Amino acid sequence: MRMGEFASINKMIDLSGKRGIVTGGFKGIGKAITARLIECGAKVVVADSDPLINDCPNTDNIIFQYCDVTDEANLVSAITSSTGDQGLDFLVNNAGIFPTTGPIEDVADDFVSRMLEVNVRAQYSASREAARYLQRGGSIVNIASIAALRGGANISAYSTSKAAIIGLTQSFAQELGAKGIRVNAIAPGIIDTPGVQDQLGPLKEGGLDIESAIASNPLRLTGAPDYIARAAIFLISDLAAFISGHTLVVDGGSTA
Ligand code: NAP
């Protein structure tokens, strides 16, 4: 074995000195990713449109910045806040919306446009702007969904938006690869977040057992945000140094 030429595994997930941004990092999956990034030694700008973010005190490792990712000025400001002298090391495109879509015949164009604006156009813009600062060895992680892989009834606008993220990921990976920047996506299964609780809450009255729904995967595990965070750390770190353009499914086996 020729292990000596590579760093130890512990060293590979040591993100000390790395700087980056997590969009939608104030709650849910983005919050879990931010926590793991901090644990690994990174400095993170949390860019989120929840107004409560303005009440969060910054620390040495986290800057909380109000940012609606659909607003280009907000986005550029958040990205430049996260760059150090050496530039940027990672971008996690996590901010997304998933209002109930409903039957296709009831889905209006402006609803579809809004879904694409937040879930696709903003991820595209964030990646383009971040790419100006990302240095060699940098990493972009886009949060897609298993809805991108198999669609579903009543989620047509959402699954359309998330399927686009896979194409975005593959094209950016090919173009930015020459600069040593890796671009990957994660396709989460159902994860217990404030956003999902808001979605499923009203169905409780109709008899839905939310806890069972969130654990309805072959592993029978409750989909915790931390499972997605672990995958994000893997993709950002040197463990994934030879992985780019990939969509990593993290769903407890749901799509198997
Ligand atoms: P969440 O609990 O709703 O948290 C999302 C965060 O993003 C919130 O703080 C939200 O703020 C913020 N956000 C929304 N729109 C934004 C915008 N325009 N600019 C900046 N921030 C914005 O959602 P989540 O469940 O953690 O989902 C995170 C990502 O994972 C999304 O892309 C989602 O599609 C994807 N995903 C989730 C699941 C799941 O089961 N949870 C499964 C597959 C994929 P506000 O609350 O103030 O809007």
Describe the protein's architecture and organization.
The chain has 256 residues and is an alpha/beta fold. The chain has a single domain (9-193, 224-249), classed as NAD(P)-binding Rossmann-like Domain (Rossmann fold). The chain is built from nine helices and seven strands. The chain has helices at 9-12, 28-39, 72-82, 109-131, 147-150, 156-176, 194-204, 210-214, 225-236; strands at 19-23, 43-48, 62-66, 88-93, 134-143, 182-188, 247-250. It has a seven-stranded parallel beta sheet, sandwiched between helices. Helix 2 (28-39) crosses helix 9 (225-236) and helix 3 (72-82) runs parallel beside helix 4 (109-131). It is globular. The protein starts with 8 loop residues before the first helix and ends in a 6-residue tail after the last strand. The mean pLDDT is 95. The protein binds NADP nicotinamide-adenine-dinucleotide phosphate (NAP). Residues 23-24, 26-30, 48-50, 67-70, 94-98, 118, 143, 145, 188, 190-191, 193-196 line the site of NADP nicotinamide-adenine-dinucleotide phosphate (NAP).
Task: Lay out the secondary structure.
Elements (H helix, E strand, L loop, with lengths): L8 H4 L6 E5 L4 H12 L3 E6 L13 E5 L5 H11 L5 E6 L15 H23 L2 E10 L3 H4 L5 H21 L5 E7 L5 H11 L5 H5 L10 H12 L10 E4 L6
Parallel strand pairs: 1-2, 1-4, 2-3, 4-5, 5-6, 6-7
The structure holds NADP nicotinamide-adenine-dinucleotide phosphate.
The site of NADP nicotinamide-adenine-dinucleotide phosphate (NAP) has 29 residues, from helix 2 and helix 7.
